[in-house]
Amino acid sequence: MMTFETNGNKHIATNSIKPVSILQLDEYGEDFHLNMPDGDLYIDSPIMNEWFESFEDAKKWAEHRVGVSVNFICNPKI
Questions:
Q1: Is the pLDDT of residue 76 over 80?
Q2: Regarding beta strands 10-13 and 32-36, do their DSSP bridges make them parallel or antiparallel, or are they unpaired?
Q3: What pLDDT does 69 receive?
Q4: Largest alpha-carbon pair distance within the chain?
């Protein structure tokens, strides 16, 4: 699951493999732009201003196309 920090109307992914931001375009939460300046797992060129009707739709698309990084912590005493 991708996590985001919010700064005003901009949401920036904190654990994605490549940079991802979602910009809320209106005050009602009905229009969002997804920006991936380094592309996704399949395309290395920028993907900018992909339009979505909800934050959740943009987030799901980004999770599927970019992926998240996960840190596993091992306890050496086990």
A1: no
A2: unpaired
A3: 67
A4: 52
